[in-house]
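User: tokens in, sequence out, please.
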């Protein structure tokens, strides 16, 4: 009976050793992945947070409105006109006209 218990105990210890080795290997892989990610992200530029405040929020809304209008214009031209030259010209003009349009629509008084 004691030999049987000894064999079962050895089997349990062997299984526990295998599980512990797998756990240790996974922890080592996780640590290496974490270290690699830290090295890569340390070389990347930091994300800047958006400036808080009423004026910054108003400016974001204004710029978003201009971008939405020009995007809608370009989508309409893209759908209605098959000519690539016209599409490219409207895209170029909308990019150049965006600051002028922003000044005309949202200038301070």
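Assistant: Sequence out:
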């Amino acid at each position: 009976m004691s030999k049987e218990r000894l064999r079962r105990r050895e089997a349990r210890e062997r299984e526990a050793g295998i599980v512990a080795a797998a756990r240790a290997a996974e922890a080592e892989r996780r640590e290496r992945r974490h270290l690699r990610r830290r090295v890569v992200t340390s070389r990347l530029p930091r994300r800047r947070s958006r400036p808080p405040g009423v004026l910054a929020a108003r400016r974001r809304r204004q710029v978003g409105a201009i971008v939405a209008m020009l995007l809608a214009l370009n989508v309409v031209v893209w759908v209605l006109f098959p000519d690539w030259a016209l599409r490219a010209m409207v895209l170029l003009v909308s990019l150049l006209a965006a600051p002028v349009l922003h000044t005309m629509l949202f200038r301070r008084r």
